[in-house]
User: What shape does this take?
Amino acid sequence: DQQVKQNSPSLSVQEGRISILNCDYTNSMFDYFLWYKKYPAEGPTFLISISSIKDKNEDGRFTVFLNKSAKHLSLHIVPSQPGDSAVYFCAASEAGGFKTIFGAGTRLFVKA
Amino acid sequence: DAGVIQSPRHEVTEMGQEVTLRCKPISGHNSLFWYRQTMMRGLELLIYFNNNVPIDDSGMPEDRFSAKMPNASFSTLKIQPSEPRDSAVYFCASSQTEKLFFGSGTQLSVL
Assistant: This one.
């Protein structure tokens, strides 16, 4: 059973437009959520995170929204750039520990 | 800081052989994770250590897989015997907070 789900395997967006990547989770004990970006032949790198006590966190072009009642989070990238083309992983961890569960990833294509 | 270092980068072996993957975490990080990436399941957590002690190995697929962390600066993931379905990219990550730092991974191919 997948505790963190990314139901869209891929997403294609035009440069300059908004990219919205979605993630759902089932474990109500998760209290910290993260997004990682992965380029080919490299390990994932941390992008942005949000604590369960917040509903929004913004860092430059990247914003993460958390809807606890729906157990849903999303990553918004605006404006999207060709260099944003990568696989994006949603991840979550429980309070009191760093055990981190990842989703299957969404491949983002940003067309110039 | 050199980051998390994994070796080898690529490993090709034959079914039935023993495979050992190695990881050097970032100095000062007290948690270490082994993940496996496949097309079907994304990033699966295999096992994680805290202060060199295995905390959760529920993701280890079967007894053919074992992991050790003899000290704070080294960990191994061993597969014995290896099978073609073990072919995947294996990542090691370390952390001292919720934020994980990943190595570049080991691409394992079992023929």
Chain A touches chain B through 23 residues (CB under 8 Å). Chain A is about 0% helix and 55% strand. The CA atoms of residues 87 and 107 of chain A lie 4 Å apart. Chain A has a mean pLDDT of 95.
